[in-house]
Amino acid sequence: MACESRDEAAAAGKNTNPQAFEENALSEVRHVIGVVSGKGGVGKSFVSVALAAGLQKAGATVGILDADITGPSIPYLLGLRGQRLMSLGDLYLPSIAPCGIKVMSSNLLLGREDDPVLWRGPVLAGALRQFWSQTSWGPLDYLIIDMPPGTGDVALTCYQSLPMDGVVIVSSPQDIVSMIVTKAVKMAARMDIGVLGIVENLSYLVSPTDGAEIDLFGPSHLKRDAELCGVDALDRLPIEPALAEACDQGRLADALPDDYLPGTVARALMLEAVPAPVPDLAAMDARLDAYRDSLGLVDGVPEGMEERDATPDEEPF
Ligand SMILES: Nc1ncnc2c1ncn2[C@@H]1O[C@H](COP(=O)(O)OP(=O)(O)OP(=O)(O)O)[C@@H](O)[C@H]1O
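Above: query sequence and adenosine-5'-triphosphate SMILES. Below: predicted holo structure tokens.
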């Protein structure tokens, strides 16, 4: 990306926003993929690690930029607890996990891992800039961005300032998550960033007695949500207690089976030839309206009242 012109980057479907952070001379990152969830706790960091490990097993060199700056968990999942970042001149050197994945995380900057990060928006954006512009990533085939949950300030900065090829949306089967998934897809579309597809995590539990799938959080919404949003359904991941234990032991990457997250890894490998499409917002709204109508969820305004839109001080973006 360092030597790419803005036109070349645009042709490759990458972020060419004028607010883009500069890349330094010692980083040569070929593809940047964001992993996002509309809501916390659906396993976004878990999926970030699984995607990074899957790409690594396919022969790619991989790093993870932990943009969940106030709730960082990548060092924890990859056995880097208690490590501190090193620097060389002006540039940070990412930590290298035992599995070989390079990691940049606010947790590696803290004196104690249980210290809270009490930074306001501009400082958070500054940290993100350091993680990209002031970090010597070296040659990387893929940099995975573990984005903060939701549609807040840091998520916006990621979209506007990092040269993302596209995002993977992580959901779970709870009903409320479907609405939040559509928000996450719409956010990417409004920022003109492509969507590789949706991964449904915590999708089911395999019964230890008869191998049946138990829908612990209700039935899967993956296919329906992907169709409504007009994006690909990539993978469904079960809840696996052995993997939860591996997370706590900092050895998630090593504990994952070889063919884990196959749809997502394959789609990421295809980026070379097939850019992630930016969802069509108007078509998506039409499908969502038709779906709501089919359920009888018609909006009504009680007599004497009127609807009012939010009136923030500034344009959101
Ligand atoms: N498929 C899974 N099987 C077993 N355990 C899982 C699975 N997915 C997630 N977990 C467990 O849930 C924990 C939290 O996951 P993770 O940190 O990825 O959530 P998150 O969505 O990134 O959270 P937040 O958005 O709040 O940062 C993991 O440490 C792991 O123990």
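The CA atoms of residues 14 and 165 lie 5 Å apart.
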